[in-house]
Amino acid sequence: MKLIAGVDIGNSTTEVCIASLDEYQRVKFLSSALVATTGVKGTKDNVTGILRALSMALNKVGKKVSDLDAILLNEAAPVVCDTAMETITETIITDSSVIGHNPSTPGGVGLGVGVTIDVRNLTSAGKNKKYIAVIPGDVSYEDAAKALNDAFDRGIVVSAAIVQKDEAVLICNRIKKMIPIVDEVKHIDRVPQGAVAAVEVASPGRTISTLSNPYGIASIFSLTPEETKYTVPIAKSLIGKRSAVVIRTPEGGVKEQVVPAGSLYIRGGSGSVKVSVESGAEEIMKALESVQPLEDVEGEVGTNVGTMIHRVKNSMASLTGQSASKIKIKDLLAIDTVVPVRVRGGVAGETSMEKAVAIAAMVKTDRLPMMDVAEYLKGKTGVFVKVAGVEAVMAALGALTTPGTELPLAILDVGGGSTDAAIIDQKGIVRSVHLAGAGDLVTMLINTELGLGDRFIAEEVKKNPVAKVESLFHIRMESGEIRFFDRPLNPRYYGRIVALRREDMIPLPREDLTLEKVVQVRRQVKYQVFVHNAIRALRQIAPQNNLKNISNVVMVGGSALDFEIPEMILQELSRYNIVAGRGNIRNCEGPRNAVATGLVMSYVG
Ligand code: ADP
Ligand code: MG
C-alpha cells in the first residue's frame, strides 16, 4: 500500500489530494485540502503553503507528511499573469478652477453665482455685486449663520456658500434665506477670493444639471467656444454629483495633456503587427489573433504601454532570476475599461472617468521553475517529489471523474490568473492552451470601475449578490426582492449598497453607487473576461478551430464556483450546440481539485 499526494499550485490557491494505491495499482482517494498559495506561483515560497495543505489533508486520515511515498506537483507552465491599466487621456486643469464635489449632506438647493468672499469680510461688502460666502473651518456654524443673516438684513446678495466643515445643514437651518450650500471642501484655502464662482445643489433625488453641462458652465462664465471646450473635463467630472462648485480663477486655465498611449508590437508565427493601444481592446485582440501563435509582445518605448510591458517582464525576471530579455509574452487579454483619474487642480480630490485599456499578460520564461520548488520540497520533507504533467491536461483528467462525462471532452479551467483549456478524446490528449486573464482581472476591473479602492471588497462584490439597505429593517436585493429583519441592522449600513456574503453584509465604501450600476459593472466585466476567454481558448483547441466540433465542456477551477459565470459561459456556448456545465470532481469536490486529482490519476497510468 502506497500513499501519494497530488499538489496543484495555482496563482491563488494550492490544492492537494491524498490517495492510496494498492498492489494492483487501484487508487482510492482519501482526502483533500486547499489553502491560499504562499508566494508567487512557481517560486520556493510556495512550499510553506504546500506543507500546510498536505498536513491538513493528511490529518483527516490520521497520517503525516513523512508517511507519503510520493508527492506529485503540477508542471505549472511557468507563466505569470500581470495586469496593468494605462489611461489614454489625462486631463489637467490648472490653477484650481474646479471643485466638483459630492458631500453627503449639502444644504439648500438651486444654483448660485457670485464673487467669492470670506464670510468674515461680508461686513464690508457692497450692494452692487452678488457674493458667494466662503466659510473656513475656524468660523463656527453659528458665527457663519449670523454673518450671513446680517448681510441679508443689510440687503447684500449672498447667493451661495462654500463650507470647509461638514456643516451645510446646520448653517442652512439657521439662515433666513434658502441658498445652495456645499460643504466638506477640504482645501478651502485654495479657493481664491474675488473670483467668479458658481455653486449648484440638486434637489433631493436628482443630480446637478447646470455645472455638469459644458454649455451651462459657458453661460455662467460667458466663455468663448474655445474656452467651452476646456470645460468638458470639468463637466464630465461633475456628472452624477449632487452638488458642485466651479470657480473661474483670474489666471485659470485648463490644459488637456494627452499622454501617448503608445503601440504594441505583436510578433507571432505568422508575422508581426503594430497596433495602437488607443484603437481599443477589440483591435488589439484582432491583431493578436492575426499572428497566432504568439511569440512575444513589445511596447513602444516612452509610452504608457511601453512602461507597462517593461514592468511585466521585469517583475517576472526578478522573480525567476533571469534576464528580462529572456522573458516572452505568450498571451495577452485586452479589455476596454474606465478608470477614475484625479483631476489636477481640483480642490476636493475630484476624479473624472477616463478611457483606459486593461491588459493581462501571460509571461513565459525558458526555465522550469517548478524543478526548484520540487528540489526544495524534497529537501524539506524527505519524500520523493515528481513534477508531472501540464496543468490543463491534468485538469482534464481530473474533470473526467465528474459523473455524466464521457470522451471526447473539453475542459475549461477558470482560475485566478489564467483561463486554461484542454481537450481529450479516446486516444488521449489532443491539445491544451493557457490564456491570460481570469478571476483576478475581474476583481481588479470591478475595483477600479466602481472606484472601490479596496481589493478585498471588490472580491466580495464579485462573488456575491448586492442589496441596498433601505431601512434599518429591510433591504432590497438586486433581484428586486425585499427582505425584512426582526432586529435593526447596523445603522452604519443605512442607505448603503452591501454585498451579501451568506449572513454577513459588507458595505461598499462609496455612497453614490446605485444597485443597477454595481450589477451592470459586475456582469459586464465578467462577460468581457470570461466569455471572451472561454471562446478564445476553446477555439484554439477545437478540431479545425471550429467550436462546433466540441460537444461537451466541463468547467473547473475557483471561478467556476461563481454564481453567474458558469451560466454566462453556458449561454454563450449553447449557441454552438455545446453542453457546458460546472464539474463535480470525484463526485464530491465540485469544480475544485481537478488538477490535483488528475496528477494522481496520471501517476497511476
Ligand atoms: P488558481 O488555479 O489560479 O490558483 P483558483 O482555481 O483557485 O485559481 O481560482 C481562483 C479564483 O477563483 C479567484 O479569482 C477567486 O476570486 C475565484 N473564486 C473563488 N471562489 C469563488 C466563488 N465562490 N465565486 C466566485 N469566484 C470565486
Ligand atoms: Mg488552477
| Number of E-type strands | 30
Low-confidence stretches: 92-96
Oligomeric form of this entry?
single chain
Structural class: alpha+beta
Bound molecules: adenosine-5'-diphosphate, magnesium ion
Terminal-residue CA separation: 17 Å
What is the molecular shape? elongated
Roughly how many Å is the radius of gyration?
30 Å
Total DSSP helices: 15
Major sheet, described briefly? 7 strands, mixed
**Estimated share of beta-strand residues:** 25-35%
Write a structural description.
The structure is a single chain. The chain has a seven-stranded mixed beta sheet with strand order 7-13-12-8-9-10-11. It has a five-stranded mixed beta sheet with strand order 3-2-1-4-20, sandwiched between helices. The model is unreliable at 92-96 (pLDDT under 50). It starts with a strand and ends with a helix. 48% of the residues are buried. Helix 10 crosses helix 15 (594-604), helix 11 runs antiparallel to helix 13 and helix 13 crosses helix 14 (565-573). By secondary structure, the chain is of the alpha+beta class. Magnesium ion binds at residues 10, 413, 415, 557, 595.
